[in-house]
Structure formats: C-alpha cells, structure tokens
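Q: Structure tokens for this one, please.
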Amino acid sequence: MSQSHILSAFDRDLEVIQTLVLKMGGLVEAAILDAAEALETLDADLALKVRAGDRVIDALEQEINAECARVIALRAPAASDLRTVLTVMKIAANLERCGDYAKNLAKRTALLVQMPALGGTTGSIRRMAKAVTLMLKDALDAYFARDPARAEEVRQRDQEVDQMYNALFRELLTHMLEDPRDITAAMHLHFIAKNIERVGDHATGIAEQVVYLVTGKMPGEARPKADSTSGQRS
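A: Here is the predicted structure, written as tokens:
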C-alpha cells in the first residue's frame, strides 16, 4: 500500500472523527444555553430535556474515543498526526465535562422551581452561560481552523468569566446575609454559577490544546485568573 494511500485513509478517518466533535460541541453549547434558559424561566420540562440529552453527549465521547483508538491501531499515525488524534480525545473529554455541568445545572433548576426567586441572579447566570458558550464555540472554531491566535484570545477571556462569577458570588452572599430564608436557594445558585465558571475553564483547556496542536508546545504563560472565591480548580 502506498504512503499516499495511507495518508488519504487517515485524512478520511480524521474527517469522520472531526464531524463527531463538531456534533458534540453543538450539543454541549445548546445544553448550556437551554439549562440557563430553564433556570431563568423556571421551565422544568426544558431542564428535564437537558438532563436526558446528556446521554447523547456521553455516547458521542465514547464513539470519538473508539474511533481514535481504531485510527491509532490501524493507521499508526506519525508524530504530528498522532498529536491531532490525542488532541481530539482531550477536546472530547473537555466537552463531556461541560455537558455534565449543564446536566447539573438542570438538576438544581428542578429544585429551584419550588423556591422563591432571588431577583436578578438568574439573569446574571444566563449572561455567564452565554459568555462561556461563546468561548466554547470560539475554541472549537480555533481547533478546526488550526488558529492559535484565536485560541489564545479565548484563554484571555476566561478572566472575564471569573469576574462575572465573583460579582454573582458577592450578590448571592448579600442575599444570604440579608435574609436567612434565601440561603438554600442562594447555595443552589452558587453551585450553578460555579459549574458555569468551570465550563469556561474547560473552554480554556480546549484552547490550550489547540495551541499545543499547532505549535507543539503548551502556552508558556499561566492564563489570567480572577476567581477570588476559591483556590480549587476543575
């Protein structure tokens, strides 16, 4: 079998895998936005739809990993091609975690439907969700375009999401101090906000994998962080 034929087969396999990544990314982005909308509108049915959809996201990650393993076994890709396959697997893992965060958001929404609303907080959470979803989209676009500059721009935007999270955390803390009856709802909203902030971290992780894929090196400088509420990272 000629080398050109082997390369062509690898390219075809990679195209199939990247189509799956594109589908998975679209489902994750929709899940995050739908979960945030369900929270803001207290739509229990939409929250249930998000939870059910997580199974499809999980199945896509498994399919991507299986296809990547098959390509490695059958095509024995060279160093640069192997890096592409491994990058795809890491991107899929990041997307699967983001899908889990959307599911967790939907689970807590089902509980919050039964509690008094805290004015303005769900709108702030939805704005955060839109910001991290756009980060995910841009990180995936950077991957498909092999554009490290766009990926680096996504990394820098993580700080903006952290700042949104910090502001929301202070707002929720104020609610809890002013009226102890709001503590339970505020704690659920805090966990939701933290999950969305971590989606931003995973989008940043995808962006860093793009930089590594194109340059062969992980970004040298630590990404800026502005989460002042906790030292724990996801």
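A few notes: The CA atoms of residues 34 and 50 lie 7 Å apart. Helices lie at 3-41, 44-75, 79-112, 121-145, 148-178, 183-215.
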